[in-house]
């Protein structure tokens, strides 16, 4: 599998580019310029919040099942490929959900950047101590 060391393009810019495409479809759909019959993205925007959020649940479940299959196959190449495809479906639908809520992948990446270097164990303990949980 690909590692970050030999990745030719930046992950951020790949996400940003796809998010631009999705946002353009969203805006074109709202302006009556994208046809849900020819654009899957426009079709989901035409259906609204519930359909978009339901797809995330479905795609997450499919990714989990693909991961279980990959493990059962001892990480066989074909199962790994299927797992990557399901994860791609999940990430794509997350981008649609972000767009539906006027958010961008950059917002999520900024949040992950903010968390860099903070142990999840420490973060949870701090939340408990401050009564947030
Ligand atoms: N990356 C994707 C992408 N990934 C997955 N999908 C679609 O997501 C759909 C959902 O996958 P499922 O496995 O649930 O398949 P399904 O059973 O057909 O879906 P449902 O009937 O259950 O909704 C499929 O139709 C896939 O083709 C995508 N559709 C579009 N894109 C990107 O979005 C761009 C714009 O797409 P359009 O809006 O269709 O022009 C494309 O150029 C691509 O870059």
UniProtKB/TrEMBL annotation:
Question: Per UniProt, what is one Pfam family of this protein?
Answer: PRA-PH
Q: Which residues form a coiled coil?
A: none
- According to the UniProt record, what class of enzyme is this? hydrolase
Instruction: State if Nuclease is listed as a keyword.
Output: no
InterPro entries tied to this protein = HisE, PRib-ATP_PPHydrolase-like
Q: What is its EC number?
A: 3.6.1.31
Q: Which reaction does it catalyse?
A: 1-(5-phospho-beta-D-ribosyl)-ATP + H2O = 1-(5-phospho-beta-D-ribosyl)-5'-AMP + diphosphate + H(+)
- Repressor is among the record's keywords: no
GO BP terms in the entry: L-histidine biosynthetic process
Sorted alphabetically, which NCBIfam families does this protein's record hold? histidine_hisI (TIGR03188), PRK00400.1-3 (NF001611)
Q: Which family does it belong to?
A: Belongs to the PRA-PH family.
- The name under which this protein is listed is Phosphoribosyl-ATP pyrophosphatase
Q: What is the species listed in this Swiss-Prot or TrEMBL entry? A: Polynucleobacter campilacus
């Amino acid at each position: 599998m690909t590692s970050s060391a030999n990745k030719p393009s930046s992950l951020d810019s790949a996400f940003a580019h796809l998010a631009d495409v999705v946002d353009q479809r969203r805006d074109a759909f709202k302006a009556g310029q994208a046809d849900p019959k020819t654009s899957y993205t426009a079709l989901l925007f035409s259906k609204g919040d519930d359909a978009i959020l339901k797809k995330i649940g479905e795609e997450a479940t499919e990714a989990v099942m693909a991961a279980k299959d990959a493990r059962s196959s001892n990480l066989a190449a074909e199962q790994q490929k299927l797992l990557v495809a399901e994860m791609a479906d999940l990430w794509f639908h997350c981008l649609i959900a972000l767009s539906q809520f006027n958010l961008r992948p950059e917002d999520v990446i900024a949040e992950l950047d903010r968390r860099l270097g903070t142990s999840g164990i420490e973060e949870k303990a701090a939340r408990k101590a401050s009564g947030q949980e």
